[in-house]
Amino acid sequence: MSKISWIILIVCSVSLTAAILVFGKSRDPSYESLDSFATCLADQGAVMYGADWCPHCKRQKELFGDSFRLVKYIECPQNNQLCTDKKIESYPTWEFASGARLEGEQSIAVLAEKANCPLPPIKR
User: Which CATH class is domain 35-115?
Assistant: First the structure.
């Protein structure tokens, strides 16, 4: 095999691996209802900070579907001073009663672990 063939093979392999890592993320399973889970997050002091124009926030909200109405959510552009005081630098940012923070979109499993909430039942 020629040197050029090896280089092409390596580039293709790296590109394929990168594509799998970026686009092959497993999605959250479909849950029966996230109402009790969203209520638990709120009861445990979890807060999501975001902005309506943020595509990551939109996807995070879509993950909850109609149950997002039960999540404690702060719209930072409308609460600029609060978000500045809290040092919110990216959206979405999740803050927990423990003081722990997570930036970016989070899975239901990660949020459940951080907030000490039980995972909701998965649709069968």
Answer: alpha beta
